[in-house]
Amino acid sequence: MTTLIGLVGTNSDYSTNRKLLQFIQRHFTEKSEMEIVEIRDLPLFNKPQDKTIPEAVQLLADKIEAADGVIISTPEYDHSVPASLINALNWLSYGIYPFVDKPVMITGASYGTLGSSRAQLHLRQILDAPELRARIMPSSEFLLSHSLQAFTDENTLIDNEQIEKLEGLFEDFLKFINITAQLNHAHDLNKREAENFSWERV
Asked: Tens-of-pLDDT digits for all 202 residues of the chain?
């Protein structure tokens, strides 16, 4: 069975993005095993000179490395992703490179009408950075708008059209993971290039 990591893209104790990942975890239990992971306990990235990685970061990196794919659900703050998510990705590209060639699907929930569309675009740009090099599923935005009203008391999505769209995107993501697994001939080189990349030499 396909193994996934559901990365909650915020340090908020109450987040509809966490609810969305919990729904995905339950709704597709026959097609995948997904573990939901948090970033709220990660320390603030401070670029340690000895590149010592905090234990919580290493544990998260190991889980991402072992998974077949990652689903990141992000809110949108000031037309961008939360600082806590950037912080996590800074750690996950500093001496460790679990996202290199890793299939990623991006989702997002927001209280307004745009469903984190600009944050998702920003996240795509970040994940394409030389030190991350994730494989982001194309044409796959899932934008959950008015997310405070989107769930039942049992944490199930109310809108059947949204569920149908999510089911289609999830099936595509499973196929994307299988296709990506075959595009691995340059993986070792990509990992070395990420490890050796330096903005000082650009």
From this structure: 999 999 999 999 999 999 999 999 999 999 999 999 999 999 999 999 888 999 999 999 999 999 999 999 999 888 899 999 999 999 999 999 999 999 999 999 988 777 688 999 999 999 999 999 999 999 888 989 899 898 998 889 999 999 999 999 999 999 999 999 998 888 988 889 888 887 776 5
Domains: count for the chain: 1
Q: What is the domain extent for residue 100?
A: 2-201
Query: How many angstroms separate the CA atoms of 75 and 143, rounded?
Result: 10
Distance CA 201, CA 191 (A): 18
Which residues are CB-contacts of 30 (< 8 A; sequence separation ≥ 6)?
none
Express the helix, strand and coil content of the chain in percent, nearest 5 each: 40, 15, 40
Select from 73, 64, 60, 69 the least CA-distant residue to 24.
73
Give the number of other Cβ atoms within 10 Å of residue 46's Cβ.
8
Pair of tokens at residue 83: 């600082």
The CATH number for 59's domain is 3.40.50.360
What global pTM score does this model have? 0.94
- Answer for the pair 24, 90: CB distance below 8 angstroms, yes or no: no
Whether residue 159 contacts residue 150, with contact meaning beta carbons closer than 8 Å, is answered with yes
- Output the six-digit token pair for 6: 């559901």
Q: How far is CA 133 from the centre of its chain?
A: 13
Q: Is 175 left (phi over 0), alpha (psi -120 to 50) or beta?
A: alpha
